[in-house]
Amino acid sequence: MKQFISLLITSLNVNFGISALRYRFTKEKKHLWEPILIGLSIILGGGSIIALYTVFLQGVYKGGQMLNSPELVLLIAILACQFMVFIFGIFYVISAFYFSNDIDLLVPLPLKPYHILASKFIIIMVNEYLVAWPVLLPAIIIYGTGMRPGLMYWLKSLLVLLLTPVIPLVLVSIFVLILMRVVSIRKNRDVLVVLGSLLGLLLGLTINYFAQKLPEGNSQQFIQDMIVARADVIKLIGQRVPPSTWATYGLAMQTLEGWMYFILYLLISLTLFGLLMWLGNLFFYKGLLAGQEVNRGRKKLSAQSINAQLEKASSPVIALFLKEWKLFLRTPVYAMNGLAGMIMVPFLILMPFIARAEEMKALLTQIRQPQFAMQVTLGSAGLVLFASSINIVACTSISREGKTFWISKMIPVPARQQVTAKLLHSMAISGIGVVVTTAVIGIALKLSIIRMFTIFILCLLGNVLLNALNLLIDLLHPRLEWDNPQEAVKQNLNGLFSILFTLAVLALSAILTALLVQLRASEWIIHAALGLTMGFLAIPTLAILYTLAESQYRRLEA
Amino acid sequence: MLRISNLSKSYNRGAVKAVDGLSLHVKPGEIFGFLGPNGAGKTTTIKMIVGLLNPDEGSIIVNGYDNQKNPIEAKKSIGYVPDNPVVYDNLTGMEYLNFMADIYQVPVTLRKERINYFLEMFDLTDAAGDLIKSYSHGMKQKIALAGALLHNPALWIMDEPMVGLDPKSSHLLKELMRQHCQKGNTVFFSTHILEVAERLCDRIGIIHRGKLIAVGTLDELRRGEQSETLENIFLELTEQ
Ligand SMILES: Nc1ncnc2c1ncn2[C@@H]1O[C@H](COP(=O)(O)OP(=O)(O)OP(=O)(O)O)[C@@H](O)[C@H]1O
Ligand SMILES: [Mg+2]
Description:
The complex is a heterodimer of chains A (558) and B (240).
Chain A: H1 2-15, H2 18-28, H3 33-66, H4 72-98, H5 102-106, H6 113-147, H7 151-163, H8 166-183, H9 189-211, H10 219-229, H11 233-238, H12 242-252, H13 256-292, H14 303-309, H15 316-330, H16 332-355, H17 357-367, H18 373-389, H19 405-410, H20 415-445, H21 449-476, H22 485-489, H23 493-518, H24 523-555
Helix pairs in contact in A: 1-6, 3-4, 3-6, 4-6, 4-8, 4-9, 4-12, 6-7, 6-13, 7-12, 8-9, 8-13, 9-16, 12-13, 15-20, 16-17, 16-18, 16-20, 18-20, 18-21, 18-23, 20-21, 21-23, 21-24
Chain B: E1 2-11, E2 16-26, E3 31-35, H1 42-50, E4 57-62, E5 65-66, H2 71-76, E6 78-81, H3 93-103, H4 108-121, H5 137-149, E7 155-159, H6 167-182, E8 186-190, H7 194-200, E9 203-208, E10 211-216, H8 218-222, H9 230-237
Parallel strand pairs in B: 3-8, 3-9, 6-7, 7-8
Antiparallel strand pairs in B: 1-2, 1-4, 4-5, 9-10
Helix pairs in contact in B: 3-5
Bound molecules: adenosine-5'-triphosphate (ATP) and magnesium ion.
Magnesium ion binds at residues 42-43, 83, 159 of chain B.
């Protein structure tokens, strides 16, 4: 146990860079304003999102009260939280279990496999709190201040805050343990890992979707029934995801029954955790050690094939672009994170059509009517822009170089050309995202070719702007010190900034559209105005990016 | 070929002075050995020459180009192998070499010839199609060495190049260094292996606490006492 505790403390220290931070401010004497500025922008950006979310929850709470189920707000928050933990978890777990470099250090130590597994699990839990708490806390506070359920409520909610990530994370971890065990024997392991985890993600989303599906039938009727009959909404929704119901009841009911639910929830969490540890003891090292092997000696190159590969010379920019592309696709964490958005968003759009074909038909015929054409086009463009820009390609493109950054500093290629290669690479990934999502949405909504083309152009322009902004933020503030590729993308603040940029551009477009609609501008004028705005904003951003490139590359030491 | 004047660099905002007023001139066709105790400032100096670190003071002229004012031209003249070469793990050896050839704009016929030559020489032909992350430490070092030489750099800079190489490879490396100089190029490397420095280098510089405390041919360093080994000279000079 003592061993485990010190392993855990060391891992926590490394994960949050506590010693490194202390060194930075005591020894290196880095500027203090930097972290303060970053902290402020996180509070502002994150705060505004949380504020919006709180307003939404308050609506849910009021609605719940009308339905005589004020605890609806708790249920929604717990479900949302578990859902997010699940999505983030898949990436965290794979990279922390199998792709982190400290594994080499840890395995030779006299520790049991489950020690390592448990310490990694707890680290991931702590990271997930950063996602989970902003989702849970507002709901707990809204319910607690509204219903005044007493002291026990607050004590129990502390436990819920601590435990909510456990169940989804254990499920993800078990999935990953099995995935790695299966995949480790095969060739092309990295590709299989990416595909497997994306599959797991889709599977999880599908299950989630079906599990939360309301009973078939007319939804209007259903809600009326519920109000009239005072039917138990909580039971209906939570039916298929019992743990969230237990947590909700356990929190909300201060009776003996409430305690039963609460204890049930605790027990299930602990049992699942135990199961994971047991499986870990069986599987963890096997998958892990197999994972250390890289395919070698598979194909020996003949003299001819060597020369064939050397037949083509490229310009430095093209060579850098190809390098970026290969490294991106061949590093599972990068590929997963970069491609997840453009796979998930179309999937989430298609899901309802598959799951509830009947009801959707009615909705579709509504949507496809010509008077909604503009709203549908712009709405789709917003979705496509979101899906294609939430990849972390541009905002981590310098961070990802990490310990190989010396090569970029050493080579006789001007920083501008290096930035150009990175911009091309991120535009290529975003471009694929735009094409895929536009096609899926266009076909699902039967949009005309000209509208699909409009969406394509608008989103491409939007992505030029966003990728330039994302590259700029990474250029100004790269995270080059990392041992494990997952730190470069997941534990990188630039990812957060990138999402905020996307939201800002979407908000700006929405405001502009609303203004133009007020002025009774025609549809195509609105499209043109949006496109021009993106274009005009992109020009100064690119100018700043290229102006700063040279001096920033020089300033970053390797 | 390489002219360093009054070079200074400190870390942690002046708390650690790593290189202190260093001046040095390395001539074309010379093999120059850079010696010094741990933490003396060798790596720091080398990193400033190749442009990884910015000097606080002083200038560095490589092949006639100031590496602050004209960094691209200076870099074109340099081939650099760091002490612990971390290269792109997820490229194959072949892809890495081809990438370097593209970056340094080596024409197709020349790159074919040289890549084949180095792969053959370092026994990497069989591994060339595999990802670099599957390589052993020494193999990674050799692929980095090959990558640094594809453009036949006027100045070849290495930081402790022998560490981690097997006897045959380090023998080959020494041969390569000689050949490189015979073509009129310059080699600059840091090392802790005094016998190598003794036998290979035309001139030797010793750095201690950031300052160059001795420079010259072996004979000049001996100051007439023919029996002195480099080891004794080194130990005496870096005593305090
Ligand atoms: N990144 C850094 N941050 C702070 N101090 C550093 C850093 N790198 C080097 N130093 C300090 O600079 C001084 C010179 O280090 P340098 O790496 O140049 O020595 P070296 O001669 O290469 O030593 P070795 O023979 O051990 O490789 C040392 O005192 C070292 O502690
Ligand atoms: Mg050194």
